[in-house]
Design brief:
This protein has 14 helices and no strands. The longest helix has 56 residues. The protein is 79% helix and 0% strand. The protein is mainly α. It is globular, with a radius of gyration of 22 Å. Helix 4 runs parallel beside helix 13, helix 5 crosses helix 7 and helix 8 crosses helix 10. The two termini are 14 Å apart.
Amino acid sequence: MKIVKGYTRIMLLEQNMFSIEQTSYQEEGSSCRVSFILLSFCSVSFGAVLFYFIKVLLNDFGPWTIAFLRSGAGLVVVVVIMLAFRKPFNLRMIPWIPMAAMALINTAIPWAFIGFSETRLTSSMASILNATTPVWTIFIGMLFFKNVSTKMQWLGISIASFGLIVLLGVNSETIISVDVIGFIGMLTASLCYGIGSQLSKRLLSGYSMYQITFGTLLTCMISSGSMAFATETVSYSDLISVSNIPMIIGLGAFGSGIAYILFYYIIQNGSAEFATMVTYLVPCTALIWGYSLLNEEITWSLITGLFIVLGGVFIAGRKPRTVKAASMEQLAE
């Protein structure tokens, strides 16, 4: 009799959970599809625009200057969008100290590191190292924000770390075939992105994606502009160059303004880990652009390291489905 009652309770539980999940999937399905479409757009914008444009602009500008121009152009686009859609700025309501801290960690500093690293690495290598961002996001969440760690996450982190060793191109003659300083610089940029993604989810909740993007780019423009003015020189002829202006506008509009609005939208409607999965798709487009437009060499170690790193990122990002089974067991007792 107890067995029959237990079985009946399990069947009723499964029916109730199915109906709940069905309505939940109907409500969240469209949101998930929108987030995935936006994630794909961000990958094309970041991958096709970011690393290629930065690589070319480094011929005339320093890393801090590129970050300043990029954030400035992106800020103009965001302001135009906010005015066109009548989105409130509410400048007095924005928490500027957390905003400044998050903008420095998640924008200004990693942008400068990316520019610096691309003076020593190919854009393809930089994009692959940038793809470790989700792993750093998970690791930072576990280390500082008490996120629960799983065996799969540690396995994924270990696999991604092995992929980084493959990317170093270890050999018996030169030991390491890539520039170590540039390599570390890109990993530092990815680490900053991971920290910034976790902070933005916690420090800036309750504010619109437009406000966050506006505050982020404004703070980045001021900080990177100050560093550029103090450490780098800029030629006026390079600023008004016909070849540079479209790249600056493209880098600011698509790689900063629009892409950052979508990025923070994904964070608010998903998770920091899902938002940083944009870097999971970036290397594919960046490799194509680097090979076709910059004549960058694609080696076997680059391809092998790419698949190992992305494999580690994929495994680390998987979440076990144990909550449903645990709930069923508790109610069946």
